[in-house]
Sequence to fold (307 residues):
Amino acid sequence: MRMRPTLSWTPTEDLPPGTTDLKPVADVLRTGGVLVLSGAGISTESGIPDYRGEGGSLSRHTPMTYQEFTTSGRARRRYWARSHLGWRTFGRARPNAGHRAVAAFGRHGLLAGVITQNVDGLHQAAGTDGVVELHGGLDRVVCLSCGALSPRHELARRLEEANAGFEPVAAGINPDGDADLSDEQVGDFRVLPCSVCGGILKPDVVFFGEAVPPQRVEHCRALVRAATSLLVLGSSLTVMSGLRFVRQAAQAGKPVLIVNRDPTRGDGHALTRVALPLGDALTTVAGRLGIPVDGGPTAEPVTPSAP
Fold:
């Protein structure tokens, strides 16, 4: 299924208002078997902006589409210049309290898995194992001709050497690691080919308009089937790639809970939407369950109870 390049969503129905009551979230985590689905909102406290929240990057930036990237050399030059600059900042981002709380829930056996729509690798950096990167990861590069995978830092080194003196000042950075640069700033930035076959290199991420690999989708569907509930963290659920798992869980009668400050496209399927900042909300929930997030003293940690 291709990821639709849906850039905005407007509610077409009366949705229940958000709440500040974290009890339902604590209750489902206490039971265990929770599948987490995270979006860009969980990484904003790490300095990576959201797409659609207040001040989101879509107000000034249209993400690259797969079709444009594969058919236009000029588009690839613009993308790689902006992405190369953005990677310098993006690659330095560190997990925040929200990522650390999710990792702590996993260590205490409360999670059935974590699916993330993010490409920043911050869940893994926080210590969460077995994260399914629905849209891939910016720390890898793939050749569109031979399929060779290589580390992003390797390409970054090659691009530094090929573009000595490339030091523009970006207006901002986006959730896909793309920095805001004008065409004048991009200039004649040199794009490099695959070192194996000379083919076109692309970050190992799913662009807007590109298909999420079917086997990855099925793996996520299997995680939904095995979970007792679905907890959405920081996603507007605007694109179908994430919304379909919310619909699947709801149709199976599994509780769906959302922590997101703004309304989401999945609110109609949710038991509740908590409209609080994620770091504070998840740290509070962890405290109620007696689970340390940063190694501080807490009460006796909870063990999953029988459903």
About this structure: The CA atoms of residues 202 and 292 lie 39 Å apart.
